[in-house]
Amino acid sequence: MVIDRVSGKIQRGFLFVIVVSFAFGCNFPVSAKGNTDDVGKKDSETITSEETQEQADAEDQYADLTLENIFPEKSFFGPTAKNMSFSHDGKYGAYLYRPYKERRHGSDLWIYDTDAGSSERITSVSVMARFQENTRKVKEARIKKAKEDKSNKAKKKSDADKDGNNDKSDEDSDGNTTEDVDADEGQVEDNEKEQKENGDWVSDADADDKSGPKYSGVTSLTWSPCGHQLLFVSEGDIYQYCLDDKEITRLTKTAGAETNVKWLHDGNGYTYQSGGRLFKVIFGRHLIEQISPKFESGYSMAGYEISPDGEKIAFTARKWGPAPQGSGRKVKIANYRDRFMKTSEHRRQLAEDPTRSWELGVYLYQVTDTLTEEATLSRVFKGTFDKPRDYVSGPAWSPDSTKIVFCAYEQENGDVKFYEAKCEYLENEKKADVKKGKLPKTDSDSEGSSKKDNAENAENLLSGQNDPDKQEDKEEKIEFKPAEMIYRFVHTGGPTTPNMIAPEYLSDNRRIAYLSEQTGFRHIHILDPLYQSTVPITTGRYEVYPVKMAKDRSWMVVTATKEHPARADIYKITFDDNAMTKISLKPGRYTSVAVSDDGGKVMAIQSQYGRLWELVSIDSQASTQSVLTDSHPEKAKKHTRAKPTFFDFKNRHGHDIYGQLFKPDDWEATDKRPMLLFLYGGPLGKTKQVLEGNYQGSSYFFAYYMAKKHGYVTCTIDPRGNSGYGALFEKSNYERVGKPQVEDVLDAVDYFIDTHGVDPNRIAIHGWSFGGFQTQMCLYTEPNVFAAGIAGAGPTEWENYNAWYTTGTIASEKLEKFSLLPLAKNLKAKLLLVHGVEDANVLYQDTVRIYRELLKEGKETLVELFIDPTGGHGLGGDVKSLGRFRKYEDFLLRTVGDEKTAKGNRGNSAER
What we know:
The chain is of the alpha+beta class. It is globular and about 85 Å long.
């Protein structure tokens, strides 16, 4: 695949690729087409030359491995494609994206032709400048810079001519003749000239121009359900793009922002939200109709879902209860930016504070009656909630538009309740008369129409074909029945699972698919309300996450960790036989997945160690997978060729614990190497650390650096407590926070001492946020195991952390018993405490308090405090990533040393 950087078009072609790889065995398959991988072709067939190159470049590679290079002031990663989706027939895909040079600006709309295998950029500064004043300012600034660039180039050329340095050889280093090179350069120059003239040219220095105007780009898109056209939003206004005539039409120009744009079911118009209200527009009509009703006093719209037939809407609306006394707690955070210290106040809901209750109503509304202002709003459900993790899913319609399903989770007792509300059609007198053969008088009657005409009129009246405005003047009235609970179970899994349940009807309009942890792992279940029974249709020690339900509800596309916990492959599940078929063709982790309506085509972001994340297109019928974007500069690719080794071991209870590691080049199993272990250890939705293509600073870059530069064995593990490994892992913290992780960390240490040449006297551990807490927990409860630890922004007193996290993850009450303050006296290792003073997430006071406790216990020679005076939860104030990891390196070399440093005895595994 070749990307025309000037025109923005991506085309297939031949590429000659020279790959320089690290000396630790990374493999890069290179195909003849460059962007399409041949299925079944082994990587080993394509990497022989790369392995030779790795050995030749090893010395140069490590000379370039510096903290300054891998932790630059500004990230060397490029933007990522987003908002992928397909046209109704799968012929086209659409996504939002911007090239690396334009990373300071917003994304643009791109269209991917699935048959041709090429992408075209639709919007740009020159295109949107005719609509938007702000974009015209960007265009003018770019044209001005282009003229300056032209002037500078002319001056350089003139200087070069004077020096006689403008001679060209007949052949370049790639064997191309002067004529070939000139022809290519001429084409590029012509394209660049056009870009400079119309305002689409961006200089290499543009990303650093903080004072220059910024292009906002496109923020969302949605395809028509029946045509090759789409709606997109830019600067809060709605635009239409038709692929047939390649025209962009502006649809709104308002002071407010239009959001949540959705097509009507027949493609004849759209709905959008603005100012907390819902509006409907029919193409070709002058009327803009507000279809959000007036809710009861105090209720405001939270969301909406239009029925498949377009005639009804399910609304959710929320009403907050009165704030109880003592619920408006605010904490003060110090600011040292000026001459004298100032404080700012931040709201904080703690577990001990009284909770403000809220009511949620689910309503059904008949869209067809809104113009006559006769439509009635029916509330089918009302619930009162007062716990931080209480949750109600958005309603989902049945395929026949006769009912909705939603679920509610009650944190206090763990109840998950499924509710169903039904719609019943009522016949009015006019339609009843038609069915009895009594026809209303028409113009044709006065002219003596035939019985045949009358019969046709009756049939048309029944079908609604004679009514040009049948959406608004439909004869049928609907009665909405109150929601009834159809199923209930007690959730005993992880704290972050209930809000992923998301029920959806199957094709029979009765059974319901949903996500649940009832089997111990997140799997797809089928609920049959008729028999009040539920069964899992996927099973095993892996996790499944829904992506898309088919329009005919016969299949569902999911991502799953079936092949390895570090991966997320794409699968199609068919409901007639519960078969699970893999769609993704190459290994890795797939996120932001979009699927065509027939299930045959996919766009997704693929991440894999050795290859940076990019947008890929998959054709399951043709068994091809192609890369659509080239997002990252060579510097990013150069510093991410390293591939850690995945490993796993059994903990003391028999659970599989997964990790990844780097080893020094000259490592042997009999070595006595220093070891650095990184972990997080807490639940966070689907998040974990051991993942394909997770180029994180601590687990990837710093780990690789310490292994190759200083001879460490470095590893990252996901102990119990992490999300993504089943219910037992995610809920293991509750009422015993940090203890399961300590056990798993100790078992990891034993595993590495026994199998990976690790010196038991020189083991260090570090982590951030929950990992900062966990690092200290390990040092204070197992003081003879570790020589050093680095704890970043750790919540050492859980009673000070927010109620949402603590009540679901730590305990429901008496959080003070999990404080680390009483354990600080046990410290024997060297400890570096790191925190940002302006951290509004984990309060800086937590680190100050534990630091003070350590001083009181006489640990002043063991503990160091490293603060960012203007930093937040991830630092980023006066202390950037480079400064942070410089400090880490210095601390570790002083306390644990490098591969040649001998350290005093700090105990070994036998002492535990």
